[in-house]
């Protein structure tokens, strides 16, 4: 069996329930050779997981899922193989974290108008120092009995369709692509699914996106085929991962099941090494 990797994992550093150490241990137990922790707008988990990854002999790729905007849509871009010690990227992500706080405050106001008694302090406490987001609010709503589960909270209150337009200060997708390239990393469109029109995907490509996350739990075979062919047509990197948020005792877990062949990581590694040799890495 060819070596496999998971390039999309969330931990307790953002809205996941696995600690960075647990993510690495589970990946090793599933016989993966490589993984990337891609928390929302932070790569704190990389530093927490690096030691255990070295101990277990599994490759840990620097990664982060960065929030941006594409027109009136929120667009998520995955960054890989950047220098995790770069101040340039960390300073940018610091402003991202402030944007996340402001956005969740706007979302809380929206659900308050729907008659739900919840405030920012409760959600901040649920995040427990992690990068705050809608899943933390969903858990609070479940704990307070407004819904039976966080999943129901998204269906009834927190989906993009239910929330409508919430003001945010996230950067344009073109800016994010440029920033990732400036630190020698690869920038990839996360879980495009049915989110974007052909014109919007072309906009990513024209802006210089490096790849597309073709393999994702939300992608059926037709979508995988569609995005794989798009990568082949434009010479883009193909990536994939489980987008794991579950806890260790959740039962079924996508980590180790939804994976990508390691040959695609080798292509990404080669590309970013070449980029680092060409661009002046910002720090």
Topology as a string of helices (H) and strands (E)? EHEHEEEHHHHHHEHEHEEH
Category from helices, strands and their pairing: alpha/beta
- The helix content is 40-55%
Rg result: 18 Å
Gross morphology is: globular
Taking the alpha carbons of the first and last residues, their distance comes to: 40 Å
Helix count equals 11
- Average predicted local confidence, pLDDT: 92
Largest sheet: 5 strands, mixed
Low-confidence stretches: none
What is the strand arrangement across the widest sheet? 4-5-6-7-8
Tell me the fraction of residues in β-strands, as a range. 15-25%
Secondary structure: number of strands: 9
Give a structural overview.
With 283 residues, the protein is of the alpha/beta class. Helix content is 46%, strand content 15%. Strands 4-5-6-7-8 form a five-stranded mixed β-sheet. α1 (20-29) packs parallel to α2 (44-56). The chain is globular.
Tell me the layout of helices and strands.
Elements: E1 4-9, H1 20-29, E2 34-37, H2 44-56, E3 59-60, E4 63-70, E5 73-80, H3 87-113, H4 120-127, H5 134-143, H6 150-158, H7 160-163, H8 173-182, E6 186-189, H9 198-206, E7 211-215, H10 221-234, E8 237-240, E9 260-261, H11 262-278
Features:
283 residues; 4-stranded mixed beta sheet; 46% helix
Summarize the structure.
By secondary structure, the protein is an alpha/beta fold. Helix content is 46%, strand content 15%. It has a five-stranded mixed beta sheet with strand order 4-5-6-7-8. The chain has a four-stranded mixed beta sheet with strand order 3-2-1-9.
